[in-house]
């Protein structure tokens, strides 16, 4: 068992190193498109990104800028995404190792995932998807370790780490709920089957899960400090915080926000236009204004 665990860690580490060797030289050194510019700016100024705020990614990006002062802020956050993406591939390799034993199949699983088009694309730019992939892989790895656990002590340890991982993951991207919802009842059912689920144990699991939400405290703290020049919304009140967390201003449970020409939306379009002008994108700003006005 010890040899198998050592082999699992060695193969997973080798997978992370190999994928990182592919990703890191390919990351963009400037500001990519999409939400990357906003996420980098939020990390630079410790502001609040668009709903639901992405506090964990913002804090990790700020740390990346601190520990990589020799490169530009954009490059450092892009490197962070590449590193997180390579670690996500490692967690997939580790999951296969735990379920089927260390072998080339585990490395193949991590490698194929890393080389897939969308995984590669979002792992070389400053985006939240590589961190989300890491949390998904970590939950799968912990679930596999829980399934293969030898005794009550190991099951208790992996279930608590899994609960913490679920909470932290939901601080990054809410789509992780698609993995959290089936995993939680499965773990509770398994613990009940082994007669290891007590009221105290369930309470500790809930505490570990809620502890994972602590990064969300960053949102009201940043909003109250009001030090960032570019920040989204006001989270100093409970209503403002819930509005941000539930994406009420960003299209909750919808992919595209409906077009409405209310006063609020007109004000938003005006802000976007001014931002485009300030970014030396006058033609783009004029096109945007004509489209929505």
UniProtKB/TrEMBL annotation:
Signal peptide per UniProt: 1-21
Keyword Membrane attached: yes
Keyword Chaperone on entry: no
Transmembrane segments: 121-146, 158-181, 201-219
This protein's UniProt keywords: Membrane, Signal, Transmembrane, Transmembrane helix
Domain of life according to the entry: Eukaryota
Classification via Pfam families: TMEM260-like
InterPro entries cross-referenced by the UniProt entry: GT117_domain-containing, TMEM260-like
Protein name: Transmembrane protein 260
Native organism: Scleropages formosus
């Amino acid at each position: 068992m010890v040899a198998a665990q050592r082999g699992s860690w060695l193969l997973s580490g080798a997978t992370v190193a190999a994928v990182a060797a592919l990703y890191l030289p390919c990351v963009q050194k400037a500001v990519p498109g999409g939400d990357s510019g906003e996420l980098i700016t939020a990390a630079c100024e410790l502001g609040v990104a668009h709903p639901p705020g992405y506090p964990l990614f913002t804090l990790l990006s700020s740390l990346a800028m601190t520990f990589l002062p020799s490169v530009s802020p954009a490059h450092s956050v892009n490197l962070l995404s590449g590193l997180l993406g390579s670690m996500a591939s490692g967690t997939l390799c580790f999951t296969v190792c735990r379920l089927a034993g260390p072998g080339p199949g585990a490395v193949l699983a991590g490698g194929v995932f890393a080389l897939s088009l969308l995984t590669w694309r979002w792992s070389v730019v400053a985006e939240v998807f590589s961190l989300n992939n890491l949390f998904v892989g970590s939950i799968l790895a912990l679930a596999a370790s829980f399934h293969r656990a030898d005794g009550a002590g190991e099951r208790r340890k992996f279930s608590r780490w899994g609960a913490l991982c679920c909470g932290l993951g939901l601080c990054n991207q809410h789509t992780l709920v698609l993995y959290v919802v089936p995993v939680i009842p499965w773990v509770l059912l398994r613990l009940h089957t082994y007669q290891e689920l007590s009221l105290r144990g369930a309470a500790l699991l809930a505490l570990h899960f809620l502890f994972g939400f602590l990064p969300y405290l960053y949102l009201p703290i940043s909003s109250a400090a009001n030090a960032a020049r570019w920040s989204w919304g006001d989270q100093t009140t409970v209503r403002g915080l819930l509005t941000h967390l539930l994406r009420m201003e960003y299209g909750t449970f919808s992919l595209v926000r409906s077009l409405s020409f209310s006063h609020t939306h007109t004000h938003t379009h005006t802000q976007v236009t001014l931002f485009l002008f300030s970014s030396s994108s006058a033609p783009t700003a004029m096109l945007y204004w004509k489209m929505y006005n």
